[in-house]
Design a protein that fits this description.
The structure is a homodimer. Chain A folds into 2 domains: 163 residues, 60s Ribosomal Protein L30, Chain: A (2-Layer Sandwich), CATH 3.30.1330; 167 residues, Alpha-Beta Complex (Phosphoribosyl-aminoimidazole Synthetase, Chain A, domain 2), CATH 3.90.650.10. In chain A, 58% of the residues are buried. Helices cover 31% and strands 25% of the residues of chain A. Chain A starts with a helix and ends in a 12-residue tail after the last strand. By secondary structure, the first copy, chain A, is α+β, with helices and mostly antiparallel strands. At the A-B interface, helix 2, strand 1, strand 2, helix 4 and strand 5 of A face helix 2, strand 1, strand 2, helix 4 and strand 5 of B. Strand 1 of chain A pairs antiparallel with strand 2 of chain B.
Chain lengths: 351, 351
């Protein structure tokens, strides 16, 4: 994907004339018109955008839909394995997937800082275009605002998404039941550490890349194969720990996990030790937990592992039958500890 | 509404402990959890938010839907007639209405700057709650990010919205035909001048308030009464001029309007003369143009005028039958001039 982005056509806005974003690019006049008509509409080419309407209009069948939003303020904008553009597409696609939905349409709201490089905007737009194409979603509607220099940070992107949920699919914390297997889709913490490394100029012996990836295909495969998936959650801010605690609280069931089953790459573990981070709380952008009926656990694990986004999956625990809605982790040396939400700020602006 | 907002309950986050937003309020840990559980979920109380899912899940009937987004970066945050919260709700509700849709659900993405006053956030959340209730929409899903001090400007809000379009309703620039009447829903420029006045400390003899208002009820009334509405557009950034030019270009039809029929309040006209603005380009947040089949024009005008949001409506012109997709305005002294998009930046950050 990054190669495609590099090989993309030259920036369609004349850089010699407009090397940087100006306030007028968000002002509703000629320059905003030019930005929309010459950059956004051709990049995201589709009939919905082409209608030049105040919103996208499309038909849906009778049934359930999912609707979600996230803003992206990641710093730096480009990092090993992704950038703010691919993150803004995959993050929202994944939130839809976690509802069991097939993602259909995304909106994109850009908040640009006056003086932001036009060429950089073009790189990001190309990355969004490629990520949307990979995830099978259309960027259907958008908005651009420009704030004065010093009142933003280059670019913030909000995406919202809508998707459809197949009949009979019921996914949510309230469906979680004692005995459910908890499957983790891969190793933890790569996104958080990749961002941190890019921000602080840290170097590793191997190339440490973000796990940023769209998860919808993998989730839909589970559903299509008839796996009884009760709850799904992607492991972004707050990491695995926060996701499990939220599900325990919302479902009112305890969760038991085993530290031994949780994979963390050597590089990530080393960085965590040096920097004082705990991989349990690190953000990921291509990892999720699935709560699956225990009778389907092995088949679900096999299906997840057969997908590139889930190669490193493992069953890390199960839903307990006791009444305490707590997350308890058995450590490598066999001791139990209660997993708590962290209080401070582990790593700001990772998404 | 403003009175209700003033009378709202005290801020649910203990101000003595957290007088300002901290980076950790966006970090996925305890403080973010507290903000969501104690402020956002109770304020916007509804079953979709209560499910604590990654997205909102709802049922829809077979048919057409509209999907739209806008980010709000208005400065100052509070102005006569509204604030960033009411604007963020009404602006997106109005974009849905302009598609002929009944607004159902909004998402809200907050980008907060570290150090932003918690009490101010609470005022804004209350304003959004009241505006959503007035417009009959649910705030169904949301996201909060916090950026470091100096990298934002207090608060930016993105809202996206979804709505349903009744069977048989076909609204869009491609439907515009020669002879269509162009109805303007009221006087121009109040929002832009109210923002400018609040920003620069200008005073007027009368209280000049923004026209910020939800337009969905009025639009749906036209549709329900069987008015043949071909196109709708609200007059935000770029004002009436840009809206008409965009529709002329997208429909490939010329538009003729008469300056005499375009109402501008004395205060607004005076401010424009002093500040060098043209009301044709000023932003409005509660005004729209309707392109209506000429046989329905009088009835449409009457219906619009019967609504508080359309009291000052008038027929300002019609779609020309010549082949030039230009907007031509007959001035007060009877001379024709071509209305062009403006090139520069008339008034930044008005929405």
């Amino acid at each position: 994907m990054s190669e495609q982005a590099t090989m993309a056509a030259a920036c369609p806005i004349p850089i010699s004339q407009y090397p940087q974003v100006m306030l007028a690019h968000g002002g509703g006049g000629k320059l905003m018109h030019q930005l929309i008509e010459q950059m956004f509409v051709p990049a995201f080419r589709n009939p919905l955008l082409a209608s030049r309407h105040d919103g996208a209009v499309f038909r849906v069948a009778e049934g359930k839909m999912a609707f979600t939003t996230d803003s992206y303020v990641v710093k730096p904008l480009f990092f090993p394995g992704g950038d703010i553009g691919s993150l803004a597409v995959n993050g929202t696609v994944n939130d839809l997937a976690m509802c069991g939905a097939r993602p259909l349409y995304l909106s994109a709201g850009f908040i640009l800082e006056e003086g932001f490089e036009m060429e950089t905007l073009w790189r990001i737009v190309n990355s969004m275009k490629n990520a949307a194409s990979d995830a099978g979603v259309l960027l259907a509607t958008g908005d651009t605002k420009v704030v004065d220099k010093g009142k933003g940070d280059g670019i913030f992107i909000n995406t919202a998404g809508v998707g459809v949920i197949a009949d009979g699919v019921e996914i949510g914390p309230e469906r979680v039941s004692p005995g459910d297997a908890v499957i983790l889709s891969g190793d933890l913490g790569r996104h958080g550490i990749a961002i941190m490394a890019a921000r602080e100029g840290l170097e590793f012996e191997t190339t440490l890349e973000s796990d940023c990836a769209p998860l919808a295909d993998l989730v839909l495969k589970l559903i299509d194969e008839g796996i009884r998936v009760n709850c799904l959650r992607d492991l972004t801010r707050g990491g695995l720990a926060s996701a499990l605690i939220e599900i325990a609280e919302a479902s009112d069931h305890g969760i038991r996990i085993s530290e031994r089953e949780i994979k963390v790459k050597e590089d990530v573990r080393g960085a965590c030790e040096i920097l004082g981070f705990d991989p349990m709380y690190l953000a990921n952008e291509g990892r999720f937990v699935a709560f699956v009926d225990k009778r389907d656990a092995d088949r679900a694990l096999e299906l997840i592992r057969s997908d590139p986004a889930g190669e490193g999956a493992s069953i890390i625990g199960n839903v307990a039958s006791d009444a305490n809605a707590r997350v308890v982790m058995e450590s490598r040396i066999g001791a139990d500890r209660i997993v708590d939400m962290f209080s401070g700020e582990q790593l700001p602006r990772i998404c």
